[in-house]
Specification:
single chain; 295 residues; mainly beta; ten-stranded mixed β-sheet
């Protein structure tokens, strides 16, 4: 799936711009896993299905989509199909749609609903209406208030890892503040996910941590997946160096889940099959630091 997410204001978590889902780290139980250090980052963000902005209540501006979805741009394709100009796409939305995501929301935020430009998974804006901001390329995106505004997308089996066995999401995010006032007890907010309420409904989510956290995870970005009862889970954790992440800056985040294969050094793959990966601005997390503990 691909999302587009815009920016957030103080008290809000972040902005969301285009995001998408594409259906198709080692399996484990512990969510408390140290991630590898990340390299340089750029712009990014994404929103997810499940409708909730996440425990932490962060908001953002922007849009989303995925191979589970993609948004169409000027001259782009309509819902349900890729543009005819994939040899040389003229816009970002066309580029996404040419990857044929299962869903894509551009997160324009200009109406009460947000079309899925790759399919029929229309989202509905809930709570406070988003305001407007722009991506670096000038595309308009939604800006959420960080406390009550979010985009909700109805559940669909194509967004479910147990059903598809492989799923990739991507999105652009931009946080107005890096110390999230609505964060969870250990300092993170969920900015996208297939998750209406936690146990037993959550399947996966995208997380970002505050700069200062009780577990020393400054600005970590995680691709998280839950077990069947959503009371435990595992993640791929992109842990940046101190002060690498900046407020009011766009970052491009990609998460990938699969139950079909696992790195050779993963343990107990019969009980915990599969792998999780996460990238920020094209830089992959350091899976080697967590593989033996499950990812």
């Amino acid at each position: 799936m691909r999302w587009r997410i815009a920016s957030l204001s103080l008290g809000s978590w972040m902005a969301w711009a285009a995001s998408a889902l594409f259906a198709g780290a080692c399996g484990g139980r512990s969510a408390a896993i140290d991630g590898g250090s990340g390299g340089a980052i750029g712009e990014g963000g994404a929103i997810g299905e499940g409708g909730a902005t996440g425990e932490g209540g962060a908001a953002g501006s922007g849009g989303a989509g995925g191979r589970a979805g993609s948004s169409g741009g000027a001259g782009g394709a309509g819902a349900g199909g890729a543009p005819s100009s994939c040899a040389s796409p003229a816009t970002y939305d066309q580029t996404v749609l040419c990857d044929q995501p299962v869903a894509y929301w551009a997160m324009k935020g200009t109406a009460s609903t947000e079309p899925d430009l790759a399919g029929s998974n229309t989202g509905t804006y809930k709570g406070a209406a988003p305001t407007a901001t722009t991506l670096p390329n000038g595309d308009g995106v939604a800006h959420f208030n960080g406390t009550s505004g979010y985009l909700s997308v109805p559940s669909n089996a194509v967004f479910s890892v147990p059903t598809t066995h492989s799923l990739t999401w991507e999105g652009w995010i931009n946080a107005d503040t890096l110390q999230f006032p609505q964060a969870s007890g250990d300092g993170y907010v969920d900015w996208m996910g297939k998750c209406a309420d936690y146990s037993p409904t959550c399947e996966w989510e995208a997380r970002m941590y505050s700069t200062t956290t009780s577990e020393s995870r400054p600005n970590r970005m995680s691709a998280y997946v839950f077990n069947d009862t959503a009371d435990l889970g595992s993640a791929a954790d992109w842990q940046p160096a101190d002060n690498l992440i900046a407020a009011s800056t766009w970052y491009y985040v990609v998460g990938e889940y699969t139950t079909l294969s696992a790195p050779s050094d993963c343990q107990n793959t019969a009980m915990y099959p599969g792998s999780i990966n996460v990238w920020v601005d094209g830089v992959e997390w350091n899976q080697g630091r967590t593989a033996r503990r499950g990812a």
